[in-house]
Amino acid sequence: MFPLIGIFGTSIYIYFYGVVWYEPILLLVFWFISGMGITMGYHRLFSHKSYQTNTFLEWVLMIFGSLALENTVLKWSSDHRKHHSFSETEDDPYSIVKGFWHAHIGWVLKNTTEEKSRIVGVKDLEKKSAIIFQNKYYYHIAIIGGVLIPLLIGLMYGRPLGAVLWGSFLRITLVHHATFLINSLCHYKGKRTYDSSSTSRDSWFISLFTFGEGYHNYHHKFPSDFRNGISWFAFDPSKWIISILSFFRITSHLRKTKDHLIFKSKFETLHTTLIEKLNNSNEMYQNLYKDKVSVLSNSANDILLSWQKIDINVNSISSYIDKKHLKEYRSEIKKIFKDLHNISRKLNKRGLVTNTI
């Protein structure tokens, strides 16, 4: 219903009545509010507990997330925790193994057995006041905040129908399918930098529409990290807002994966994929590169082991010597990555393998 009214209804309305400046703004503002309610609230706070906050912000994020009409926090979190715990199995609600359409929206439309759709694994959330209130008044919150408020704004400008079409139906359609693309496209197309065995992929493009949720391969490897895009240039507004709020002590206990674990996962993925390429190449190139890859791999493992000894205790990274070592480790491991990538590119350039890292 929402896509039909949102896309076709809004298009017909525009054809006959045009567009007033506040209508696209209404769409963007409510898209941002409801989208952040899902990413910051439903996903990173409630589902993964990647940071902590006060009761007030929990209520705000619960209300904002309700406007997206993606179900209650308990149901959403239950499904999402199943997705991570039983990824790509029969118990994964939106498994990509069952096809792109199923992972995108088919799982929502499909008649699921009561046992499969049961809310489980969220006992830690059930006693929160915001969630107790939402379970009683979910549709009231969604309709008042997501429909009546845009309607009232529209009445102020004499275009109530346009406001509801833009701020409610079209906005909900876009929020839904942006979220669904993470379950489908981000398990189908993109880079697997941190875990080559997972179907999850990193997509900077999808992050633009999902407030940073597109870095999905990283998220599946390190689900408790409050960040999805870890690079400074990675588009992840959820990460930025959570970080900014921490300076005002509104958010706290931000969970970050240790650097040596991130580099270790990147190295293991790169090494595994490169070994597969070498095994698929001819004997001449195996002899040419295998020893070099082995030497680089041993060096990387030694560096990561030394890095772990410092990084495992955050309090020890206070001395000048330790900081100097970490800087050296980071520089050396990046050089090794560069050398391994060069070998991979040479193999690809010679047309010896078809897959790329």
Helix content: 55-70%
Summed up, the helix count is: 14
Could you give a short account of the major beta sheet?
2 strands, antiparallel
So what's the overall shape? globular
Q: What's the domain count?
A: 2
Helix- and strand-based class?
mainly alpha
Would you report the number of β strands? Answer: 2
Please state roughly what percent of the residues sit in beta strands, choosing from under 5%, 5-15%, 15-25%, 25-35%, 35-45% or over 45%. Answer: under 5%
Strand order of the largest sheet: 1-2
Head-to-tail CA distance between termini: 41 Å
Short description:
This protein has 357 residues and is an all-alpha fold. It has helices spanning 2-17, 22-47, 55-66, 73-85, 100-109, 114-117, 129-156, 160-183, 204-210, 216-221, 237-247, 259-279, 283-311, 320-349, and strands at 52-53, 251-252.
Notes on the protein architecture:
- The protein is an all-alpha fold and 357 residues long.
- The chain has two domains: 251 residues, no CATH class; 91 residues.
- Strands 1-2 form a two-stranded antiparallel sheet.
- 38% of the residues are buried.
